[in-house]
Specification:
- By secondary structure, the protein is mainly alpha-helical.
- Helices cover 84% and strands 0% of the residues.
- The protein has ten helices and no strands.
- The termini are far apart.
- The relative contact order is 0.11.
Length: 251
């Protein structure tokens, strides 16, 4: 009786093993093969973008604090979070044996970076917040949400933790602009005309690499525009104003 039970248990284990192997082989989530040269090549640029994006965000929040020194403590806390994210994404590349193409990433952010620096020098806080706390954060959240569905297990766990923090950052800029909308609306809409088209341009630039990672360009743009327009609504803009701002993405 005891031997029969053992045999039955072994058969069950083998059956379960076979089912698991079949499940992995059929790949129901349509995950990419993380080990191919093409995946790693594309990942070297995408990974660099998120690493550089987190560094830019850190630097930008520290810079914004010079315009609103009363918020130094809060902005320093946000900046520290961004450095934690940078370390996490660096580990994601290391886990796959990929060296991030940081030279590419710096060029990728160069126009947005330049516009932020010009606004900072002029003391245009609204423009700085639009670029960092609205555009870049909405871009990051939408991209991370799409990526989580097709990421390798290690990167998925890291990215899920990052997204929770990014919502806090989006909320910070959103709340400041909401409180000051009556005095900053005109600058907000002008800054949007200049900077929103850059997000579309940036998405187009990495569309092929994103596709290799099983991230669809149209879905990325759709997710971004939803996140962006939801934020504008929370800030207090009406539907007509939001539609007018969103039109800047169509260039």
């Amino acid at each position: 009786m005891h031997n029969e039970l053992k045999i039955t248990d072994m058969q069950t284990l083998e059956s379960n093993k076979k089912t698991t192997e079949e499940s992995i082989n059929t790949n129901p989530l349509n995950l990419p093969d993380f080990t191919t040269d093409s995946y790693k090549d594309a990942y070297s640029r995408i990974n660099a973008i998120v690493i550089e994006g987190e560094q830019e965000a850190h630097d930008n929040y520290i810079s914004i604090a010079t315009l609103i020194p009363d918020e130094l403590e809060e902005l320093t806390k946000l900046a520290r979070m961004e450095m934690k994210h940078k370390k996490g994404f660096t580990a994601c590349g290391r886990n796959l044996g990929v060296v991030a193409d940081m030279e590419f990433a710096k060029k990728f952010f160069s126009e947005l970076h330049g516009n932020f620096q010009i606004a900072l020098e002029k003391g245009n806080l609204t423009t700085c917040l639009l670029i960092q706390a609205i555009l870049i954060e909405a871009f990051a959240i939408s991209a991370y949400n799409v990526y989580i569905r097709v990421a390798d297990p290690f990167a998925k766990k890291i990215t899920e933790g990052v997204v929770k923090d990014e919502y806090l950052h989006l909320n910070y800029g959103q709340e400041w602009l909401k409180e000051n909308l009556s005095t900053c609306k005109e600058e907000l809409m002008e800054a949007n005309k200049v900077n929103l088209p850059l997000i579309k341009k940036m998405l187009d630039q990495v569309a092929d690499d994103a596709s290799v990672l099983a991230m669809d360009r149209e879905e990325l743009m759709e997710e971004f525009m939803i996140a962006y327009q939801d934020t504008l609504m929370e800030i207090g803009l009406d539907n007509r104003e939001i539609a007018r701002m969103a039109m800047a993405a169509i260039v």
